[in-house]
Amino acid sequence: MPGQGLPLRVATLLTGLLECLGFSGILFGWASLVFVFKTEHYFEELCKPEAPLMGNVTGPADCKAQDERFSLIFTLGSFMNNFMTFPAGFIFDRFKTTVARLLAIFLYTTATLTIAFTSADSALLLFLAMPMLTVGGILFLITNLQVGNLFGKHRSTIITLYNGAFDSSSAVFLVIKLLYEQGVSLRASFIFISVCSAWHVGRTFLLMPRGHIPYPLPPNYSYGLCSGKDTTARENSTAESEKLEMGSKEVPPAKEETPGPEQQQEPRSFWSYALSQRFAWHLVWLSLIQLWHYLFIGTLNSLLTNLAGGDRALVSTYTNAFAITQFFGVLCAPWNGLLMDRLKQKYQKEAKSTGSSAMTVALRSAVPSLALTSLLCLGFALCASVPVLPLQYVTFILQVISRSFLYGGNAAFLTLAFPSEHFGKLFGLVMALSAIVSLLQFPIFTFIKGPLQNDPLYQFTFPWVKQESCAFWKSSQGDSEVQPR
Questions:
Q1: Domain 10-49+60-217+274-476, CATH among 2.60.40.10, 3.40.50.300, 1.20.1250.20, 3.30.230.10
Q2: What is the pLDDT of residues 366-377, one digit of tens each?
Q3: pTM (predicted TM-score)
């Protein structure tokens, strides 16, 4: 890395990290925002009072329909977050960085202004605003992932760091919730986020390339503030050299056998990778784990309300705890990338003596990461399946670690297992297809709220735990009166 370009590259890295941390994935702090929306009486007309208990005294309102409405908004937003990643990746590959970022800024600003000026009477606008917010955020992430190309052997670490920042950005809604409780209106918070678009525009033209950051990085590469009139030509030439190098070093043959010299020189099409078994199995792995995460986030407010017996103060405390743990995703994710980078360097040394291909080395370095991510998600699922409220603190910790490893590992795996010229499209395709699976979260939520009578299916496995936990909370609260929701 040339010495004179280091300050600019560090500035790009840090500002990109801040951008992902503050804006890209804030939808996944949905539980905090739902708490505010309920306080503002959004969709409260859907709540129905239960039958009278004694005389004229009625029980707590049945807000199942309200919870379903919020779950549907989150389902739509999370679906668009993934499904639109494919066209977003195509836009990034076809029209390059500047166009993709300007589109992201437009969508994001429109969404935040829409949320700012909604009220309980116009709450249906959230069905429009949340998908736009998520599409703008994923475009921010996609355009920033290429920053890892500036730092050579630390590429996977930076990619996972950015994905961790994407996860941690869900804490933004916690900040909005805490400010709301201190008297700052929801409108003021979202107007401030809208004004921050000026910062995004400045970063687009000053600290990001107009095209793509190539990998491997050519000598004397310049961009942003340092780019001259020949930037486009230079990027086109480096892209061509990148394709040639990828064709000879990283492109696997169609049947994944040991290639001959002439086979290595032939570049393969995007669809040959998209239809490969490697991509298909990775898609299945990502989709199943992601579905569980989305279901947990989308139903968290309802789950906590159920476990806390409707105590709003207790629900608020656990919602804050969940959102705070999300912030630490940015600290968890780089360890996954660091693991992959270290293993890749180790296997590269071994490959020199054994004659293994670069693709084999890359895939071997990814296997421990994928296995560790799977084990973390299994632990998270088991803890979440036990309806004991204090245990949810452990659930929150395992959830943020496994989620950080999931998305960071997904992006890093795609950069290792497939050529970089197809990264945007492959990243978008795997997220888009996994989005279709994520739509199952709404019928599952409806099933929980309906036939299961607000008890998740896994709670039937632990009926004795449920009884003990209810007794524990009644005694800990001193049989105090529970506030209705």
A1: 1.20.1250.20
A2: 778 788 888 988
A3: 0.69
